[in-house]
Amino acid sequence: MTGYTGPAKRPRALVVRLPDGRIRLTRAISARLSAQVATQVAAAAGRTARPFCNPDTALQVIPE
């Protein structure tokens, strides 16, 4: 997972990096997976998320 869309406490979709380097957005994730991702996002809280590609989008990237 490279990032997410939606609020950090309830992400709606994930931004993933494919093995060939391309970055793609998943379809909407389940509430159960959203809760699990929120835990990972909270663990990365010391690394501030930043807009991905376009500052007008809702995509957030978790810095590596």
**Biggest sheet: strands side by side, in what order?**
3-2-1-5-4
User: What class do helices, strands and sheet pairing give?
Assistant: alpha+beta
Low-confidence stretches: none
Helical proportion? 10-25%
**Mean pLDDT rating:** 78
What's the end-to-end separation, in Å? 10 Å
Question: β content, as a range?
Answer: 25-35%
Total strands: the figure is 5
Structure description:
- This protein is α+β, with helices and mostly antiparallel strands and 64 residues long.
- The chain has one helix spanning 31-43; strands at 3-5, 13-17, 23-25, 50-51, 59-61.
- The chain has a five-stranded antiparallel beta sheet, with no helix packed on it.
Features:
single chain; globular; 5 strands; 64 residues; alpha+beta; 5-stranded antiparallel sheet
What topology emerges from the helices and strands here?
Layout: E1 3-5, E2 13-17, E3 23-25, H1 31-43, E4 50-51, E5 59-61
Antiparallel strand pairs: 1-2, 1-5, 2-3, 4-5
